[in-house]
Amino acid sequence: METETGVLPVPSGRLTSIQALRDYRDRVCARPAAEKTVRVCMDTACRAGGGEEIMRAFERELERRGLGGSVAVRATGCHGFCARGPVVALDPEGVFYQMVEPGDVSEIVARTIVRGEVVTHLTYHDAEGSPCLRQPDIPFFSGQKRVVLRNCGTIDPTDIDAYIARGGYEALAKALGTMSPREVLETVRASGLRGRGGGGFSTGVKWEFAAAQRSEKKYVICNADEGDPGAFMDRGLLEGDTHAVIEGMLIGAFAMGADEGFVYCRAEYPGAIKHLRIALAQGEARGLIGEHILGSDFSFSLHIKEGAGAFVCGEETALMASIEGRRGMPRTRPPFPAVSGLWGRPTNINNVETWANVPPIITNGAEWYRTIGTQNSPGTKVFSLAGKLNNTGLVEVPMGATLRELIFDIGGGITRNRRFKAVQMGGPSGGCLSEQHLDLPVDYDSLRDAGAIMGSGGVIVMDETTCMVDLARFFVNFTQAESCGKCTPCRLGTKRMLEILTRITNGEGTMDDLDRLEKLAHTIKATSLCGLGQTAPNPVLSTLKYFRQEYEDHILEKHCSACQCEGLVKAPCSHTCPAGVDTSSYLALVAAGQFKEAMAVHMERNPLPSICGRVCHHPCESMCKRSELDDAVSVAAVKRFMGDIAPSTESVRPRPPDQVKRVAVVGSGPAGLSCAYQLALAGFPVTVFEALPVSGGMLAVGLPAFRMPKDVVAREIEAIVDLGVEIRLGVALGRDFSLDSLLADGYEAVFLALGTQVSSPLGVANDDAPGVLPGMDFLRDVNLDNGASVGDRVVVVGGGSVAMDAARCALRLQAMDGRQRDVTLVYRRSREEMPAYEWEIVEGDEEGLRFEYLAAPARVVLGDDGRVSGLECVRMELGEPDEGGRRRPRPLPGTEFVVPCDTIIPAIGLSLDMSWSSGELETSPRGTIVADRFDFQTSHPKVFAGGDAVRGPSTLIEAIGDGQRAAFAIEDALTGARVREDYLRTIQEARKVPRAVPLDRLEEDVERVTTQHLPADSRVMSFAEVVQTITAEQARCEAGRCLRCDLEH
Amino acid sequence: MPRRVLTPERGLEGLGREVAALDLAPLAQIVAERYASSGDLIPVLQGAQRHYGYLPDEVVTEIARLTGLPASRLFGVITFYAQFSTVPRGRHKVCVCQGTACHVRGGHGVLRAVESELGVKPGTTSDDLEYTLETAACLGACSLAPVMTIDGRYFGKLTGHKVTAALGQIVGDGEESDGD
């Protein structure tokens, strides 16, 4: 780029000695530098965002202000922070601007360059929202160590002088001037550098093989055929610091005695090829490539070969065939290329990044290199971060950094705050790793042990919306298309694997297919000719290993949890709903004003619309495609409206019991109610046994009335009773009846829908003293009007919904007595880790709840009367993450403090009461009942179980879904048919509710509905419901926002 | 957008015109500049394709004659590599990335949108030789996923609207030149 305005002419021509290179560097450095420099990234991503326009805008604006002489504008290679492109950095201040538009340029010049101010709206803002003024302040950069990428984003890669000024070609000078080829080999070998193309073979050893060959002709090759989908490290490096790669090749050629080299670059990288050609021409002009380099006996010529589009050419023998002008098909090894390579001559092939590692190793020595990285994998690794994470881009970290550091610290975590699911390492040859590997220190050996490979360094992050079966199919589709066809296992095997995977993603797979896949995969791995075939099964094997459940779901349940497999998913909202409610259909009916018909659709699979409209965590909304446009449809608000105005009893046609076999359901919570409802509609006489004096389980006694009014619960249960379901209250399993007595009484099947209602104790001294009220007991007493009361100063321990509900009940009890509100919530982690929903935390905060984060109870302090007088807590810090990925809190000794209080409500966990059991059912180590995931059968053939009893504390809609599917399984077990399930599927598949909102009006700006809340000060004076139901007009409008994904099929 | 569908007859006429107008003279220079040994076959084919847009039989036969290589060897190489085409390609080349990052970020939807906008399937060219639609295993701009290129220019973070807007540039262009 013609930006240097050097007054002193720099002599052109060949540099004929090492001294000439050094003199030349001195002269380049002595050129009068501009006072300030604007570095504009010109890499692909930033250029696609308008980098060139920004560059021109800077040049124009500086010219206009007469600053052209004192401010240089430099086009650089990739800065790495591609997600935030186009990026611009300003020196000497080091100010870093992101997502710059050409229109911002005049402000940058006026404020930053002229006045020295920072334009904060263009800086990166960290998680706390504070601007990061300089590049090193940004977490994305501060976590990196840039050895290979040291010049990327700093220098103009098309200017050899810029490279020389930064010490470029000094390593070559050192090798030629002070080292023998032997010493160079020794240094590279001692550094422990391993091949960055993925295999991880020792570079020094590989070089020695080629060096040991006696031949008057040897070649070195740079493999720049970066074909892995999802990898762009080599492109970034070739485009951003081209000379570093060439210098590495020169040093390697000198060490091995080669005099000719090739860079084989894929045709899809025109930018890299362009920069290579420029660098080659400049290197030749300076005498750094050619005859008698720097006056030595070493001569080297370099050629650039453009690939022609074949992934297999990344394999070294295929690559050489391609350079020779033949079809790029691999051959068997040995002979290895070091013995017989290009045109039968000894040849050494290394990847782009490997070559770029060589100059710093020669300059700084092997010892220095070994201080970076791990024992067996020294140095750094460049990764391209892509997929569902916030900071996609090019990063470099020391070997041994963990995946968590890569993905969460540098990568900024998952987009839209979704949940991390998997990371694919190493492209089509690599594997998928799961959450359990997040703390794996990444190096060649750890990745191979885990079932992935380093590969060239592509890291694709996936969240819950990526289907792992579909991903395996994607990779196999790729490898089968790229298989050269020379060997049978790869040519036919990958095709067969693709057929099986396609079958599974279409919902037509069988469980036998899984065994067949595994067998095929092992055969292909063991018997293929080259690396392509030998590694092609890795994505299949690793997903089978870590995500087998998803395969089983596709086969047995026709369910794709990521809602990606088009053959299975009609609309993602409905598909993701554990109860399978036909969401888009009832939304369309509400939009059309047909509320009763809408309700009938809902009641097919879920008899509790008003309840779910209030307290379901609505997974349907998290999968809503409208969220790609603006915000998800508020399914919950619409559902609540619908449930509140259209009486549910009128929506269901009761069916007289026509089955003779009777079923008992134990527990009247959501799982029990849902099961009883479906069984009744399937014609079975059902009796529900409930230990409490009210029905509804957690709905009635676990949720406070300000979230879940009791009349709403009663109304929806009433509708179920109207279908002929009998509910017996006040009868407890173990006390009034047993499993055996139920079966002896003639019930042919029993469904256990026991809730987790036992609060875990605090587990510290005096945790049963008077004044300690277990969370669930407290909520139950509040809900049943059992005279629940709290003292003047209350501490609630825990961070989940039960803790939030208990705390907000305590606030109301105090306020309704006319007392000061004084409730503190103690939680051992920080707010970010709190399992309670964000809105709960906000509402609690509005109501005056105090939060004490990073504190854990150490001891209950007793007063003279033996009652609670305080809670001694200890400060915590967050340490290493646990298996679930949340950072584990650690106590800080000596930081104990006492929160004075008279009431302590522990809400730190719930468990299942199994005191009724005499061991007749198999239980899990967590104390829950073991039941089959698909047919809900326990170890007793007539006893079924679902909901919390099997899952442990879970969600409302999971319980409803379990109850429903258990009912289908029970019908199957008792009659040998699934009439109810088949009926529902048939009507759901056949239904096509027309659009209420015409397509052309759909994309008008209609914002997601906001619900009305009672004001915080008045709502704590009663248990009245906080959130209000939306109006009919709002409901129709909101339902009309649905994009109707269901109609696309 | 409905695409003009050409009848096979008109399409063939179009092709006939192209072939008849084929001037093989420039090949001599391409071969002279690029060819020293059989290792240079691929650069020669790349040069010829750059010049003619594709590699018709006449061109391949002429290269074989000029280089002395058997035509069968040339066809072997041409059919192996994805870059080479033996059928004419469109004036505008649209390439939709189907790499991993694009896949997990909805690249399939982008491909479908482009297909319906242009009315061509991947790997094919519109009958009026305006557009060729291709897919790539990875365009190497994963941080912009989903991505496509139009005549080599990158368009990233695509949505339905952005696809339409990007294609609008070349589609409008094509319509105008259709007036003659």
Total strands of chain B: the figure is: 5
Instruction: Quote the beta fraction of chain B.
Output: 5-15%
The coarse overall form of chain B would be elongated
Separate helix tally of chain B: 8
* Total beta strands of chain A: 30
Instruction: Please tell me the overall pLDDT of chain A.
Output: 92
* CATH fold name of the largest domain in chain B: Glutaredoxin
Q: What structural category arises from helix and sheet content of chain A?
A: alpha/beta
Q: How much of the residues of chain A is beta strand, in percent?
A: 5-15%
- 3D shape of chain A: globular
Largest sheet of chain A: 5 strands, mixed
The name of the CATH superfamily of the largest domain in chain A reads: NADH-ubiquinone oxidoreductase 51kDa subunit
Q: What's the level 1 CATH class of the largest domain in chain A?
A: Alpha Beta
Stretches of chain B where pLDDT falls below 50 for ≥5 residues?
A: 1-19, 174-180
Structural Rg of chain B: 18 Å
Identify the CATH architecture of the largest domain in chain A: 3-Layer(aba) Sandwich
Throw out a few tags for this protein.
heterodimer; A: 1049 residues; alpha/beta; Glutaredoxin; Rossmann fold; Ubiquitin-like (UB roll); 6 domains; 5-stranded mixed β-sheet; 5-stranded parallel β-sheet; 43 helices; 30 strands; 14% strand; globular; B: 180 residues; alpha+beta; 2 domains; 11% strand; disordered N terminus; disordered C terminus
